[in-house]
Amino acid sequence: MKIVIIALPKSGTSTLATMLRVLGYSVTGPNPNIKDEDNLKKTYNAYQAFQDYPWCFEYANLIVNNKAKVIVLKRNKTNWLKSFRESYAGKGKNYLSYKYMKVSKNESDEKFYNYYANYYKEALTFLEDNNIEYLDISLEHLNWKNLCGFLGKSVPKNIFGFASKVPKVNSKNFKNNGLSFKLKKQLKKQLHHILGPYYFKLTSFIYKNQ
Q1: Which of 7, 57, 118, 123 could join 11 in a cystine, given CB atoms 3.0 to 4.6 angstroms apart?
Q2: Which pLDDT tens digit goes with each residue over 117-156?
Q3: Residue 134 to residues 71, 85, 126, 191, Cα–Cα distance (Å)
Q4: Chain-centre distance of CA 122, in angstroms?
């Protein structure tokens, strides 16, 4: 069973991806280096769950004829846009997702909000028209009970037998702290390189037992 997350980047997808990893799913995304359809489908076949770019834009090409459950994750649009702009400011005229969104960095808030509304409207219409099972939930109401109920899983417990807390992934913005953010990012990169596939197993264990 494939689990596809339909949610714009910076809508809480990292938190949801971590929750799915704690439940034992192999999760991929974001995958900005996927450039062609063959690579897209090979990656889709290799994993169980999918979040962020390009999956949140390519879902219609992947799940129509495939058995999948879909999680539509939303975030307050004001908080979403603030996080989106802060995280993807950087250099250059366009965001990484410009290929799909067609909204450049200098556009007004209103244009982003219109895209946000149309994105979720089209997603829900697609899911309804194709009779695809989905969970429509906001980040504020994302919890183990709702997620596990939808997936038919038991709420995960830590090593002491208590229900795990919902992970707070990227809950603090370190970018304003300059060096702190860069050091944290570099450490994660090095750990990922050293541990390989065990990196997410380690982080999932930590989040499960925090």
Answers
A1: 7
A2: 999 999 999 999 999 999 999 999 999 999 999 999 999 9
A3: 6, 28, 11, 34
A4: 18
Question: Could you give the C-alpha distances from 180 to 98, 177, 208, in angstroms and in order?
Answer: 29, 6, 25
pLDDT score recorded for residue 1: 82
Let me know: does 10 contact 89? Beta carbons within 8 Å: no
Q: For residues 133 and 127, give the distance between their C-alpha atoms in angstroms, rounded to a whole number.
A: 7
- 3-state SS track over 76-108: CHHHHHHHHHHHCCCCCCCCCCHHHHCCCCCCC
- How far apart are the C-alpha atoms of 3 and 192, rounded to whole Å? 23
Give the tokens for residue 2. 């494939």
**CA–centroid distance for 40 within its chain:** 17
> Cβ distance 40 to 34 under 8 Å?
yes
Inter-CA distances, 15 with 60, 70, 83, 100, Å? 23, 16, 14, 23
Residue showing tokens 């949140």: 56
Helix runs in the chain, H state only = 13-22, 37-46, 55-58, 77-87, 98-101, 109-129, 144-151, 179-195, 198-208
Number of other residues whose CB lies within 10 A of the CB of residue 11? 28
71 DSSP β-pair partners: 5, 135
